[in-house]
Amino acid sequence: MGEAVLIAAQSGRALARAARRAGFRPYVADLFGDADTVDLSETCRVMPGRFGRGMVPGAVLDSLDGLAAEAGRTLGVILGSGFEDDPALVAAIAGRHRLIGASAGTVAALKDPFAFADLCARLGVPHPTVSAGPVDDPSRWLVKAQGGSGGGHIRPAEAAMPEPGHYLQARVTGRPYALNALAAGGTVRALALTEQWCAPAPGRPFRYGGALARAEGEPPPLPPSLVAAIAEAAGRIASATGLAGLFSADVLSDGSEWWLTEINPRPGATLDLLDRRSRPLLPAHLAACLSGGRQIDLGAPPVDAAASAICYADCDHAPVPAVAWPPHIRDRPGAGTVVRRDAPLCTVFATGANGAAARTSLEERVARLRKTLNETPQDEEAPP
Predict the structure, then answer these.
(1) What is the pTM of this model?
(2) Which fold has domain 109-290?
(3) Beta strand pairing call for 175-184 and 141-145
(4) For 117-142, how does the pLDDT look when each residue is reduced to its tens digit (9 = 90+)?
C-alpha cells in the first residue's frame, strides 16, 4: 500500500488521479466532492467556498487536520488552485503540515501583481504594465482580481480606478499559451507548451475554457526561439523566488513577441494533459520540492495530442440526473447534486493523432454531453 498524501484545491480530482497513478493514497479536501474524486480518494472532504472566489481558511485547516488524523503518517500536502490570493493561509498550512510545493513567500512574490511586475522588470522579462490607477484611458486596460484564478475575474476596465482587491493590467495583443514546466535544483525543465482558449460568459469574457497539448511530432504552436526564451525567463523567475515543483507560466503571444502575464506556482488545469508520460509525473514534483531539488527521470512524453475543456452548465441542473459517465468525462457531479447555470459542470478530455484531431474529438464529446444532459429524463440513466 502506497504512502498517503494530502491534497487541497478548489477541485482535487486531477491531483488525486495523478497521485493514484504514482502509487500514492490521496486524502482530498475540495469544494466539489465529485463522484470520481470520491472514487479516487481514500477520503474526500467537501469544504465551503465558491469556485474562483478563494478558500475559507478555517475550513481548509480543519479539513486537512481531520484528513491527516485519519491518514496517520503522510508525505505532506499538495495545494492546487484556490490559494493564490492568500499567502497567509499557505503559511498556516505549512505550520501544521509538510508543504509539497511553493512556500508562502514564493506565492506572495509571484501573485502580488506589483511585486511580480517589479521582478519581471529587474529580470528583463516582458510583462504588461500594471497600475493601481487612475489611468487616462480605461479602454486600454483590463481589470483583474489580485490572486485570481481561472480567468473569470478578468474583464475590460470601465473606470479609471479599480475596485478594492483588484488592479489594472495594460492590454497587449496575442493568443494565450502556457509553458508547463518543472522547477528543480535551480533548473527548469519544460514539459509542454499548451494552447489555451476562453469560454466567455456574461461579465466574464476571459473565463478559462480549455487547453491543448500537441502531439510529439508536431511543430510547437510558437517558434522554437520564443519557446526557448519563455523557458529561460521562467527559469530566472523560479531561481529568484525559490519556486520548486510543477508550475505553469501563462503568456500572450502574437507569434513574434510575447508577454508573461503570470506564474501559477502549482500543478495546474493541464495536469491531465501532462501526466501521460511513460512515468508518473507526481514523484518528480515531490522530489523537486522535498529532496533538495533532486531531478528524476520524467520518462518519454506521449506521442499523441490531448485536449481538455471545462464544460460549464448551460442551465441549472437541480438536481444533476443519473448519468453513466464514460471515462473521458471527469470531475463528474454526483447524481442528485445541484449545479447552477455557468458553474463548472465537468471536464471533458480527448486525444488524437494531432492537435486538430484532439480538438475535434473534444468538441464532439462536449456537444454529445450537452445533448445527453438536455434529453435525459431525471429518472433515466444514459451514457454521454
Answers:
(1) 0.94
(2) D-amino Acid Aminotransferase; Chain A, domain 1 (3.30.470)
(3) unpaired
(4) 999 999 999 999 999 999 999 999 99
